[in-house]
UniProtKB/TrEMBL annotation:
<dbReference type="InterPro" id="IPR020825">
    <property type="entry name" value="Phe-tRNA_synthase-like_B3/B4"/>
</dbReference>
<keyword id="KW-0460">Magnesium</keyword>
<dbReference type="InterPro" id="IPR040659">
    <property type="entry name" value="PhetRS_B1"/>
</dbReference>
<keyword id="KW-0030">Aminoacyl-tRNA synthetase</keyword>
<dbReference type="InterPro" id="IPR005146">
    <property type="entry name" value="B3/B4_tRNA-bd"/>
</dbReference>
<keyword id="KW-0067">ATP-binding</keyword>
<dbReference type="Pfam" id="PF17759">
    <property type="entry name" value="tRNA_synthFbeta"/>
</dbReference>
<comment type="similarity">
    <text>Belongs to the phenylalanyl-tRNA synthetase beta subunit family. Type 2 subfamily.</text>
</comment>
<keyword id="KW-0963">Cytoplasm</keyword>
<dbReference type="InterPro" id="IPR041616">
    <property type="entry name" value="PheRS_beta_core"/>
</dbReference>
<keyword id="KW-0479">Metal-binding</keyword>
<dbReference type="Pfam" id="PF18262">
    <property type="entry name" value="PhetRS_B1"/>
</dbReference>
<dbReference type="Pfam" id="PF03483">
    <property type="entry name" value="B3_4"/>
</dbReference>
<dbReference type="InterPro" id="IPR005147">
    <property type="entry name" value="tRNA_synthase_B5-dom"/>
</dbReference>
<dbReference type="InterPro" id="IPR009061">
    <property type="entry name" value="DNA-bd_dom_put_sf"/>
</dbReference>
<protein>
    <recommendedName>
        <fullName>Phenylalanine--tRNA ligase beta subunit</fullName>
        <ecNumber>6.1.1.20</ecNumber>
    </recommendedName>
</protein>
<keyword id="KW-0648">Protein biosynthesis</keyword>
Length: 585
């Protein structure tokens, strides 16, 4: 859920009245939002960077508001204010108008763009007037969209340019990086695309976007008719066409790998900031030519109609209101609605791309009606709750392991590749691990496939404790499974480790025997459990066995290999047991 920061005084000025923090928190709740925090820019910097980071920074009060992830129209002050005022009945929803295109502002795509970012859309805002506050909001909305629907610019990259500094028609091309040379935003001189990639390799914000195109043989680039580079998406805009407070006409282009997302992003930007144009809420369309010569007009700013049942809306929400009241509730949510017999005809404006199904409309009715105003009532279906058998068994086993003298540990579900592979004498390719696609640290790269590494790391962190150290954990691991719907499955395991000056097989074998006795499993090769010799690189040769339950292998037991102990920085011998407890449910 994205969080936006708005200046309290500017917000109250736009809303036309002042609120206490409690009053505004209640207003946010009624509107389906949440006031997350009341802070200042100085306090935010001090929290992120330390006590000395806030020197000279404004102490103006900021409201940090949590916005639903699909409400792109509320990600800036302009959209938030319009939404609240319409909700309060103080204004009507804005009516947006598209103006006929001008050929001189058309955008032409070349066939080469199909190799990297095949789609583009564009629009023009004319006669716009920026203030410092609206300019900052304009930039901040682009950042919020980039992090949200644009998926960190992988799906869509936004470029905004001062139209008076460039000349159309414009060309969207893809060229080898050595052939792209321009002066990037806020850079002192011209550089090639290759040099820019090296320059931004350590840039705090831009370095995360470089991998999107770095390995491609061609980089996307947008130029005007004179060859002036507007941008090299998704990395950086050109300095020549940068937006300033004096900008009057804005050219907006969005390049994308997902055309639908690009249309949503463009619609959001132009609807939020067309209010500052000489003719409010008026947007000029652009022709965007495909490589085959056909063209589309953007932005489309489409308004569509949905028909929903009054009785279904009442039934799903749990209220009993007439159609006129429901129509009024939807209209308060920027969804102009009229009643037609037993149905509601809803006009979905271009600002509400989050409405994709009737249930979204039912939700907005519930928000406008007020969740606290919905009458509480008993469930119509009698049900009986109960603990899952696997969880009940896990709790019983935890109690018995504790009675046996073992201390419970709770370790991280994520771990490094070395923890589940290299340190245990295996190759990562041999381990059925689920990998994290974008790990933030080397410590959390995969979902654990064993509980053992977590317990060994816990032992290493507690080497000063008196020996013997006896730890256990009963938790889930995740392993790849091609037969599972998601390609992976959870498996509940019991793992125990004994660490002492001596670590014979007998220590954990006693816990295994006690556990099996409690589970009513006899020592039998066919009708109960047994051990079968096993060679595993994680265990000492000749001192490892697999635990077999009625012919099915459910785990391992043995003395850990010295190499494993060294890899986990342990100096005392350890024996370990790890079994799957799900077969006992």
């Amino acid at each position: 859920m994205p969080t936006i920061s708005v200046k309290r005084d500017a917000l109250f000025s736009a809303l036309g009245r002042k609120y206490t923090d409690e009053e505004f928190q209640d207003l946010c709740f009624e509107f389906g939002l949440e006031l997350d925090e009341v802070t200042t820019e100085k306090q935010m910097l001090m929290k992120e960077q330390g006590d000395h980071a806030g020197a000279g920074v404004s102490e103006e009060i900021l409201y940090r508001i949590d916005i639903p992830a699909n409400r792109y129209d509320l990600l800036c002050l302009e959209g938030l204010v319009d939404g609240i005022l319409v909700f309060q009945g103080k204004k009507a929803p804005p009516q947006y108008k598209v103006v006929k295109y001008e050929d001189c502002y058309s955008l032409h795509l070349t066939p080469a763009t199909g190799q990297i970012r095949p789609y583009a859309v564009a629009a023009v805002l004319k006669g716009i007037t920026f203030t410092k506050e609206s300019y900052d909001s304009f930039i901040d909305l682009q950042d919020k969209l980039h992090q949200n629907i644009c998926r960190k610019r992988t799906l869509v990259a936004i470029g905004t340019h001062d139209l008076d500094t460039i000349q159309g028609p414009f060309v969207y091309d893809a060229l080898p990086p050595s052939e792209i040379k321009f002066k990037a935003l806020n850079q002192p001189k011209e550089t090639t695309a290759t040099e820019l990639m090296d320059l931004y390799a350590h840039h705090a914000q831009l370095k995360q976007y470089l991998p999107i195109i770095r390995d491609s043989p061609v980089y996307p680039v947008i130029k005007d008719k004179n060859g002036v580079v507007l941008s090299m998406p998704p990395i950086i805009n050109g300095d020549h066409s940068k937006i300033t407070l004096n900008t009057k006409n804005v050219f907006i282009e969005c390049t994308a790998t997902d055309l639908t997302k690009a249309i949503v992003v463009l619609d959001t930007i132009v609807t939020m900031f067309s209010k500052y144009c000489a003719r409010p809420h008026e947007v000029q369309q652009c022709k965007v030519f495909a490589p085959d010569g056909t063209y589309e007009l953007y932005p489309k700013l489409r308004t569509r109609e949905e028909l929903i049942s009054i009785s279904k809306a009442n039934n799903y929400i749990g209220i009993s209101e007439d159609g006129d009241k429901l129509a009024a509730l939807l209209s308060r949510m920027c969804l102009p609605t009229t009643r037609e017999d037993d149905s509601l005809r809803v006009r979905v404006p271009p600002t509400r791309h989050d409405v994709i199904h009737a249930c979204d409309l039912y939700e907005d009715i519930a928000i406008a009606f007020g969740y606290n105003n919905i009458e509480r009532r008993a469930a119509r279906t009698a049900t009986a709750g109960g603990q899952q058998p696997l969880n009940k068994l896990s709790e019983q086993l935890r109690a018995e392991c504790a009675h046996a003298g073992y201390t419970e540990a709770l370790t991280f579900t994520l771990c490094s590749r070395e923890d589940v592979a290299t340190k245990l004498g295996r190759k990562i390719e041999e381990v059925p691990a689920v990998h994290i696609s974008n790990p933030k640290t080397l410590e959390f790269q995969v979902v654990r496939t064993l509980l053992l590494p977590g317990l060994l790391k816990t032992l290493a962190a507690n080497k000063k404790m008196p020996l013997p150290l006896k730890l256990f954990e009963i938790s889930d691991v995740v392993v790849k499974d091609e037969t599972a719907e998601t390609g992976a499955r959870n498996e509940r395991r019991l793992c125990a480790v004994h660490c002492g000056r001596a670590a014979g097989f007998q220590f954990v074998h006693g816990l295994l025997d006690r556990t099996m006795a409690l589970l009513r499993q006899p020592w039998s090769r066919d009708a109960g459990y047994s051990l079968r010799q096993l060679e595993d690189p994680a265990y000492f040769p000749g001192r490892c066995a697999e635990v077999v339950l009625r012919g099915q292998v459910i785990g391992k037991i043995g003395v850990l290999h010295p190499n494993v102990l060294g890899a986990f920085e342990l100096t005392n011998p350890c024996s370990a047991l790890e079994i799957n407890v799900e077969p006992f449910v």
